[in-house]
Amino acid sequence: QVQLVESGGGLAQAGDSLRLSCAASGRTFNNSGMGWFRQAPGKERELVAAISGTGAITNYADAVRNRFTISRDNAKNMVYLEMNSLKPEDTAVYYCAARRPTYNYAAWEEKNYDYWGQGTQVTVSS
Questions:
Q1: What is the reported pLDDT for 33?
Q2: What pLDDT, on a 0 to 100 scale, did the predictor assign at position 30?
Q3: Beta bridge partners of 10
Q4: 96: Cβ contacts below 8 Å, ≥ 6 apart
Q5: What values do phi and psi take at 3, rounded to 5?
Q6: Which of 12, 31, 65, 121 has the maximum number of C-beta atoms within 10 A of its C-beta?
Q7: For each successive 10 residues of the chain (126 residues), what is the average pLDDT?
Q8: So what's the pLDDT on residue 75?
Q9: Residues 6+ apart with CB under 8 A from 56
Q10: DSSP for 62-94?
């Protein structure tokens, strides 16, 4: 059974940094694109960052480009999101997502992801 478990969320102040981790289990993920999404209260879920199966290609939402960094360690079945210079508007529940096997591309759209974690709350105060 495929399982994605996020960790690392919490409270931060504007300008702080946080690192989210996603532990994947149930199968190998080194041939699957993976992504981090977020959903703020009253808003739709949106892509934050995505990474290809090898890690060679990454995509970022404009709102987080140059502040957030997505990475992965395929040997450990882990995906990370390093978040720097946090802003109050980054407050949201952050979700890890994975594509099905052999779908390597770092896809933008939610519909392209087949597996989801439960989410971890990130709250940034001003």
A1: 96
A2: 87
A3: 122
A4: 4, 5, 6, 20, 22, 24, 34, 35, 36, 79, 116, 117
A5: -140, 135
A6: 12
A7: 95 98 92 96 96 96 98 96 98 97 91 96 97
A8: 94
A9: none
A10: TTTTTTEEEEEETTTTEEEEEE-S--GGG-EEE
Query: Which residue type sits at 43?
Result: K
Q: Which residues contact 57 (CB under 8 A, 6 or more apart)?
A: 51, 105, 106
The length of the chain in residues reads 126
Burial 11-26, CB ≥16 within 10 A → b, else e: ebeeeeebebbbebee
Which residue has tokens 């999404």? 37
Token pair for residue 3? Answer: 């399982």
At 60, the amino acid letter reads Y
* Nearest to 89, CA basis, from 24, 32, 40: 40
Q: How far apart are the first and last CA of the chain?
A: 40
pLDDT at res. 21: 98
